[in-house]
Amino acid sequence: MPERTLRVCALYPEIMNIYADRGNLLLLERRCAWRGIGFEVAAVSLGDALDAEAHDLFYLGGGQDRDQRLCAFDLVEHKRDALHAAAGAGRVLLAVCGGYQLLGHAYALGDEEIPGVGLVDVRTVREDGPRLIGNAAIELELPGVDGPRVLAGFENHGGRTHLGDGEQPLGRVLSGHGNTGSSGFEGVRRGTVIGTYLHGPLLPKNAWFADWLIATATGLPGGLESLAPLDDAFEDAAHRSARRAAGIQMA
Predict the structure, then answer these.
(1) What is the pTM of this model?
(2) Quick one: angle between helices 207-218 and 233-245, nearest 10?
(3) Residue 71 a catalytic site member
(4) Are 19 and 154 a contacting pair, CB within 8 Å?
């Protein structure tokens, strides 16, 4: 039996999986296996109850507007209290694109307002103007990580997400559009609750970030330093390619 196990809850994996976001879960599984860390994933979907204590990391991907509507009302009715309890207990929650929008208070689509779970103080509005599409890169700092690092990925969203006063963005836009196309910020982070518009899939292009999620979610006392090093040649190549595509000069 492995000494540690990462227990992942995949929220609506059959619905909220646009742009192959399932690749994020596959990378987490592989990086755990390579280190002898156990890995369990449970799918929780429409109508299912959610146990806040049964999982270490909660993952919510992106989806089409019609699918997002279904999940939004289900999240509020069946899962909001459990997600708040999980966040309060310091468990990790990663939400991408449409999932990110549902972390906030609401997503306004014209006269319609899709409710969010209110884990972070953000509101998203579908405003007039083009979709924000393209390769992107952001600079960010995370607890237990030396110095600022770069996340590279791909964004494609019509909504503009506005952070409330005092809410912390995930990072500063180096290239691309970010939350609104003009704020200079991308994503949100409140403790271990993280929302971002970056697809890619995100984690295969940013292996160091996947490791941070694993170390944080499993509560490794030494954080990233406790994880055995891996041969990340392929992941590093993907990261370099993504940075070049986003127009970021390589060191």
Answers:
(1) 0.95
(2) 120
(3) no
(4) yes
Residue 199 identity (one-letter amino acid): H
Given 32, 71, 97, 239, the catalytic residue: 97
**Is 9 a catalytic site residue?**
no
Q: What angle do CA 195, 196, 197 make, to 5 degrees?
A: 140
Catalytic residue among 157, 177, 199, 239: 199
SS3 87: helix
pLDDT in tens, the chain (251 residues): 788 999 999 999 999 987 767 899 999 999 999 999 999 999 999 999 999 999 999 999 988 888 899 999 999 999 999 999 999 999 999 999 999 999 999 999 888 999 999 999 999 999 888 999 999 999 999 999 999 999 999 999 999 999 999 999 999 999 999 999 999 999 999 999 999 999 988 999 999 999 999 999 999 888 888 999 999 888 888 888 888 988 887 65
Enter the tokens of residue 64.
């089409």
The answer to whether 140 and 160 are in contact (CB under 8 A) is no
Burial degree of 120 (CB within 10 A; 0-12, 13-18, 19+): buried
Q: Which residues contact 230 (CB under 8 A, 6 or more apart)?
A: 31, 34, 35, 207
Contact residues for 234 (Cβ-Cβ < 8 A; gap 6+): none
Helices (H), ranges, 17-79: 22-34, 65-74
